[in-house]
Amino acid sequence: MLIELKNIDKYYPIGRERLQVLHGVNLQIEQGEFVGIMGPSGSGKSTLVNILGFLDSKYDGEYLFAGKSVSGLNDRELSHMRNRTVGFVFQDFHLVETATVFENVQMPLLYAGITAKKTVSAVEQALERVGIGEKSKQKPSQLSGGQKQRVAIARALINQPRFIIADEPTGAMDTKTSAGIMEILFNLNKEEKVTVVMVTHDFSLLKYCSHQIKVVDGVVQKGTLQA
């Protein structure tokens, strides 16, 4: 089992009160699955994803990753865990506008302590995998939305993470561009067994998923793949 959440409760302080946003979440994700997370705004999806991605450690319950508890890790340990196990793909790309495509994808390797010279081959291969090897010297401002997302996917993959969190990865794209991005994620999942956890509001994207998770009022349910 890659990911297992056990009885997760999450609260946010509001004055002297506490607002509960996740209620007794129990969730399992196997290595190699493509999971779609859906739910209305304010349902707790973002909170759940922050916990899954090791961005939030302040919760009640237990998080097991590859069979080992991560619930007691301090911020430094959690940061190390996040950097070597999860890649993030966001709707608004989160690229550094002043850096080239190559430099954006290279950054996680440099943060991991790898010398610039040793990163060249890995970065070039990552860009080729997502079909934009010829764009390596361009800046994000010179790219289309779909090309920017391909850069973000290459960056997410560069450290060979155990899983990818894709948060509305096609939310601002037209249908054709969206299909191209989803095909990349789908092929990575099927051919390279990369585990993908995708947050989306688009029912049409569920065809790429192995199963769906629904979040309603902080309660997580296993859903169907039907719109």
CATH superfamily: P-loop containing nucleotide triphosphate hydrolases
Question: Which sequence of SSEs, written as H and E, runs from N to C?
Answer: EEEHEEHEHHHEHEEE
What CATH architecture would you give?
3-Layer(aba) Sandwich
Structural class: alpha/beta
CATH topology (level 3) name: Rossmann fold
- Number of extended strands: 10
- For the record, the count of structural domains works out to 1
Shape: globular
Would you mind describing this structure in some detail?
Helix content is 33%, strand content 28%. The protein contains six helices and ten strands. The strands form two sheets. A six-stranded mixed beta sheet has the order 6-7-8-3-9-10, with helices on both faces. A four-stranded antiparallel beta sheet has the order 2-1-4-5, with helices on one face. It is globular and about 50 Å long. The chain starts with a strand and ends with a strand.
What tags apply to this protein structure?
single chain, 227 residues, Rossmann fold, 6-stranded mixed β-sheet, 10 strands
Task: Write a brief caption for the model.
This protein has 227 residues and is an alpha/beta fold. The chain has helices at 45-52, 75-85, 101-111, 116-129, 145-157, 175-192; strands spanning 3-14, 17-29, 34-38, 60-65, 68-69, 86-90, 163-167, 195-199, 211-216, 219-223. Helices cover 33% and strands 28% of the residues.
